[in-house]
Each structure stands twice: as C-alpha cells, then as structure tokens.
Specification:
The complex is a heterodimer of chains A (95) and B (331). Chain A has two helices and three strands, in the order ββαβα. With 95 residues, chain A is of the alpha+beta class. The longest helix of chain B is centred in the middle third of the chain and has 29 residues. Classes of the chains: A alpha+beta (95), B mainly alpha (331). Chain B: InterPro entries: Aromatic_CoA_ox/epox (IPR052703), Ferritin-like (IPR012347), Ferritin-like_SF (IPR009078), PaaA (IPR011881), PaaA_PaaC (IPR007814).
C-alpha cells in the first residue's frame, strides 16, 4: 500500500555572511517547520551553512528549457552590455 | 553496481517508437557531454533504466544502514561510536539525495519506497551479508565503501544532471567512510594476536562479496551497451573491478593481512593484479533473495516503516489543521 504523498520543498543554503543562498537540493516534509529541520539534518551535516531557506517546490516558476533560444535571444545579441565591447587607450590606465 | 539484476530481462527494454528527430537530438547532446535535465526529452527506455538504477542505488544506501547500525551500541570506544554514527547518518542522507534525484524522472517518492518494501526493487547484494564482529565494520568501510567510491566517481559525469549532481555531493562525503574503515583495520592488525585474527577473518568474509558488487563479468552483461551509449555507465564492470583490486591489494599487504585468494598474482607485463574465479552462483543466489540476511533486511525496513506511520500521519494531520486554521482566519 503506497503512502499518501508529502509536499516537496527546495532547499537553499547560505554558507557565509555576504554570500547568496545557493540551491542545495530537495526533500519531502509535511510543513515548513519540519522542512527546515529536515534540511538541517540532510544538507548541513558538515556545517555547510548558517542560513537555510525552504520553499515549497510548487511556489517556484521556472522558464522552460525548450524556450531557451527565444527567451534569451535578446541577451545574446546585445554585446555592448559587456565592458570588452568598448575601447579605452592603454595610456589612460585601468578603467 | 545498482543494476546487478537488470540483465535478467533484456526484452523489457526493446526500442520503442519515438520521434526520430527528438531521439537524434537527444543522442547528439549526450555524445556532446551535455547534461540531460528533468524537463528535457529523453527516450522512455532511458527514463526507465535511470529510474531503476537511481532508486536501487537509494535503496542500497538505506538498507546499508542496517549492517553497520548493528554495531553502534557495541563500538569499542566513544570515538569509534561517534564516527560510526556519523557514517550511518551519511548513508541515510545519501539515500535521500538519490530518492530526490530519482523522483525527478516522474515516479513519486512514495511509489519508489513502496517498491523496496514490497520486495519488487533490488538493492546492492553486499548488504545481505551479516556483520559478525567489530572488524566487519572496518572491512565494510575499507572494502565496500572503497568499491562504491570506484563506481561513484565516474557517475559524477553521468549524462543525467540530477544523478550526476547527487553523486558529486555523495563523493565529497564518502572519502571519510573508507578512511574510517581502514583506520579500524589498521588498529586491529597492529593490535593483539586476537585482534589481528579478527581483522583477517573479516577480510576473508568480505573480500569476494565486495568483488561481486561490481556485477557480472562483461561477457555476461547484455545490458551494458545502451547504458554506455547513453553515458549512464562510463566503465565496464570488469574495468571497475580491476581498478578496485589494483588499488586494494597493496592496502591489504600494508595491513599485513592475506587476501583469501590463492590464485592472486601480479601480472608484471600488464601491471595488474590477476585474481581468481568469482563464485557467480553465490552472487546469483544472493541477488535472487537467498543470501544470509535478505529476509531480515527487508523485515527490519518494513517494521521501521510501519512503526513510523503514526509520525507521518500526525505530521500530515497537524499540517492540514494549521492550513485550515490559516484559511479560516484569512476569510
């Protein structure tokens, strides 16, 4: 007999002050408190973090990888957003 | 290693009718060392074989907690007990990372767990052997985790993204496991005559089953071709087994212990340790469910699952009650 399902959560960890939270993985838990405790037990056995976020996976909206070409096309063609596009004479020094 | 019984039914994965263009693109991406992610197109057979392999890998970690958990209360010192406890916790964690990866392929966590509990799914044959002495704990860490590491490092480059990433995480944590085991063997081998004898006895019992972990010889593995093409499997069973033997024999010699293989000889020309014949009948029996501990392992897992049912139900009921109260308050 298969158990009833438990919600899926995504876990994000910030390892040191000043850094961003990074996705570490997922887990199942009945509610937010249990999810936080489970995240600590599962993903920080070696002191990997000082801050944990748990987010219900259903709350995440993701772009479709199949649409990647269309979605990100503008960014590929606007190379003038990169500093290397611009020429500054060497005599000016570092800029 | 986690698909030791997959060769049993080669027809189950007969090629299915799939969009030729999508299939071609999939194969090109894999050949290019690109990672396949959960929402990408993949052949049904790829999805099926990976679901089985990753979940059986997960089941192996969970069941693997039992032979070692057996000695936590009898570890000879606090340091040994803390290390063993940490190792067993790690194995649980590894199982959970792997279930998380497996379920991205579309089968629910609960279904995967049920496959183990019902006896439908397999797990690595090695965990069906008993831990009879403290030295067994040393032998397991040194040999079983050693063999697992041989298998898991190439899996870090497996074509399926979630599995590869889970393996990277696992490999980081795994190296302490092998060192912990070897340290135990070293301490026993340098101890009293009785302790050295206990270490030798454990090696005698765990050596051949560890070699069997790598699965049947290449000549008998009909299934490996697709797994290799799809970059799920990077090295053949025999290749990995040979790597393991070459690495481990010198470690055993350093301990001053003898390997239970009278045919073991160093092939100077090839630079490999040649080993004797493996008893594949024993392997077949253990995989089929007739090993020393198969029934015990499953019974213990089922009991733990049943005993914990009230906790799962209570957690769910509480969460639902809170959610309902929240909705009522907002209304």
């Amino acid at each position: 007999m298969v158990d009833a399902t438990t919600p899926l959560w995504e876990v994000f960890i910030r390892s040191r002050n000043g850094l961003a939270h990074k996705h570490a993985g997922s887990l199942h838990a009945a509610d937010a408190t249990l999810a936080l405790q489970a995240a600590r037990d599962l993903y920080t056995r070696r002191g990997e973090g000082l801050s944990l976020w748990v987010v219900p996976s259903s709350a995440i909206t993701a772009s479709d990888p199949a649409d990647k070409g269309m979605m990100f096309e503008p960014t590929a063609s606007k190379i003038y957003r990169h500093p290397t596009f611009y020429e500054v004479p060497e005599e000016v020094g570092h800029m | 290693m986690y698909t030791q019984a997959l060769n049993a039914n080669p027809d189950a994965d007969a090629p299915q009718l799939e969009d030729a263009a999508l299939l071609a693109r999939f194969e090109a991406r894999v050949a290019d060392e690109a990672r396949i992610e959960p929402n990408d197109f993949m052949p049904a057979a790829y999805r099926r074989t990976l679901t089985r392999q990753i979940s059986q890998h997960a089941h192996s970690e969970i069941i693997g907690m039992q032979p070692e958990g057996n000695w936590i209360t009898r570890a000879p010192s606090l340091r040994r007990k803390a290390a063993l406890l940490a190792k067993v916790q790690d194995e649980c964690g590894h199982g959970l990372y792997l279930y998380a990866a497996a379920e991205t392929l579309g089968t629910s966590r609960e279904e995967l767990v049920d496959q183990l509990l019902s006896g439908k799914a397999k797990y690595s044959s090695i965990f069906n052997y008993p831990t009879q002495t403290w030295a067994d704990i040393g032998a397991i860490g040194w040999l079983v985790d050693g063999a697992a590491i041989m298998n898991q490092i190439p899996l870090c480059r497996c074509s399926y993204g979630p599995y590869a990433r889970a393996m990277i995480r696992v490999c980081k944590e795994e190296s302490f496991h092998q060192r912990q085991g070897y340290e135990i063997m070293l301490t026993l081998a340098r101890g009293s005559a009785e302790q050295k004898e206990m270490a030798q006895d454990a090696l005698n019992r765990w050596w051949w089953p560890s070699l069997m972990m790598f699965g049947p010889p290449d000549a008998a593995s009909a299934h490996s071709d697709t797994s290799m093409c799809w970059k799920i499997k990077r090295f053949s069973n025999d290749e990995l087994r040979q790597k393991f033997v070459d690495a481990t024999v010198p470690q055993a010699h350093f301990l001053g212990l003898t390997l239970p293989d009278p045919d073991l000889v160093f092939d100077e020309a090839a630079g490999h340790w040649r080993y004797g014949t493996i008893d594949w009948e024993e392997f077949k029996q253990v995989v089929a469910g007739n090993g020393p501990c198969n029934r015990d392992r499953l019974a213990t897992r089922r009991k733990a699952h049943e005993d914990g049912a009230w906790v799962r139900e209570a957690a769910r009921a509480f969460a639902e009650k809170r959610a309902a109260a929240k909705t009522a308050a907002a209304a």
